[in-house]
Amino acid sequence: MYTNVPVIGVIGHKDSGKTAIIETVVRMLTRKGYRVATAKHVNQKSFSIDSEGKDTWRHSVAGANPVVSVSDIETGILIKDGVKRFSLDELPCFTPQVDFIMLEGFSWLILNDEHVGKILCVRNREEYEGFKNKAKGEIIAFCSMRPLGKPILRIKEDSKILVRQALKFLRKKQKISKILNILPGLNCTKCGYSSCEEMAVAMYRKDAKLNDCVPLRLRSKLKTKITIDDNEVPIQPFVSEIIRSSILGMVSSLKGISIRGNEEVHVKISS
Ligand code: SF4
Question: Which atom of ligand 1 is nearest to the CA of 196?
Fold first, then answer.
């Protein structure tokens, strides 16, 4: 996935306490200063928060998409695309400046997504076993409205434990995200991990060090440096060499120029 914004998904069958969990976590973490966005899958055919005959409804019937409604207390963006077009990758575009996102439902998207921290709501031990076998990635907690025994938390009575576990997940994600921002993002696998993200997780677990990132280690030895608006663009050694020899080759063909190979050449491209 997607974004550096951590996502917590709350999944469970009908009446298993999903909304109560979202309320608890959102309430307790917003009190601590966290900014939270939520999204809920509405399992009701043709549901709309718009109403037939309203001005916004008339705008959309005329063909507008999205339709934005702005009042003195809220701004609503009505996107006339349903769940088939919903994507976790695009969600952060609609939820800027939040520290994390909570989802209610969307089990088909979340259950197999290793990036999403999961709170799984169960009504009995069978549902617990089912989720335990199916869920991929980090499980923040199993919760239930009824006492079902360990490790299943009770939604009301164990709310502080639940919030503590959610907070632990968020802090871990924030630390991994900070590490990821230092890595070049080339996903070249030269560190032995399949992506920079996997390397960031390994660094978080102290299984890897920054120096294991080959492009970073070689950066000072590269003979080509590309900056865009003062931001250095990470490049791999062979790309550095291709750019260097191509530019030197082009420059050497200019009239009156002879290239020794050890010159410092600056190319500046302006808007
Ligand atoms: S070597 Fe560096 S750039 Fe390449 S995948 Fe590993 S961390 Fe990312």
Answer: 8
Three-state secondary structure call for residue 225: coil
Q: What is the pTM of this model?
A: 0.82
- For residues 196 and 205, the answer to whether their CB atoms sit within 8 Å is no
Residue 245 lies in a domain: yes
CA–centroid distance, residue 25 to ligand 1 (Å): 35
96 has a pLDDT exceeding 80: no
Q: Tens digit of pLDDT for each residue in 138-163? A: 999 999 999 999 999 999 999 999 99
* pLDDT value of residue 67: 93
- Does any ligand 1 atom lie closer than 6 A to the CB of residue 199? yes
Beta-carbon contacts of 204 under 8 Å, excluding residues fewer than 6 positions away, are 172, 175, 176, 179
Q: Which residues contact 46 (CB under 8 A, 6 or more apart)?
A: none
Which pLDDT tens digit goes with each residue over 186-227? 899 999 999 999 999 999 999 999 999 998 888 888 888 888
Q: Are residues 42 and 127 in the same domain?
A: yes
Domain membership of residue 66 (yes or no) is no
Domain that holds residue 115: 7-48+81-174
Ligand 1 near 135 CB (within 6 A): no
Say how many Å lie between the CA of residue 66 and the centre of ligand 1: 39
**For residue 268, how many other CB atoms are within 10 A of its CB?**
5
CATH of residue 115: 3.40.50.300
Counted domains in the chain: 3
Judge whether 124 lies within some domain: yes
Ligand 1 atom closest to Cα of 199?
7
Same domain assignment for residues 21 and 147: yes
